[in-house]
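Recap from last week: sequence in, structure out.
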Amino acid sequence: MSREQRLASVFVELADTLIDEFDVIDFLYVLCERSVELLPADAAGLILADQRGGLEVMASTTEEARVLELFVLQNSEGPCLDCYVTGQPQVNIEIREVEGRWPHFRAATIDAGYEATHALPLRLRGQVIGALNLFCARPVSLSPDEVALGQALCDVATIGLLQERTVRRGEILAEQLQNALNSRILIEQAKGVLAERAGVGVEEAFAMMRGWARQHGRHLQSAAQAVIDGTDDLVRTQPG
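Predicted structure tokens:
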């Protein structure tokens, strides 16, 4: 498949939210994964606003990225927050050069092994609902075309979320995002339970749970609840 064909398929994937059993958590993970695939980044994390305007980490491609996003929110410092507040991309940031601006974020990001970061808003016109943070192990700069591509991915994902919420269920976005945030708490708990049960890392535990949910046509929230309740043994159903 050519890059042009892959780009087309990804945009269709991110726009196609009017499907039966739409899973917003999995959708946000797809946005993170496709951004890392199509842009020169090594990891991604995504934050969204709840109905009270508070920000929560919703998806990430690695556990390190998730922890960094949590660090950003806990310390109220970092390009992802500036991106959310201004609604403007914060790109081509070399971590070692921002000590005066984000000293705590700088130290945590270097400790995690990243040298550059980029943040792109999830926005529709004047409404900003979150931000996508990209992390790079090398001091990589995004070209104007790459910034435009990343922003287009975020824009189409935002439109898809708004469309699904408005057309499919007639509910306002803030309420739906709050439901997703509540689901995320359950999923984080289930990741820990499954990681301990299977004797694997939390990233692999999440991959097991997500794969099981897709295989069985279940929402991630449903799979997570099954892990917590012990009603489905994901460890026993894994191949090999």
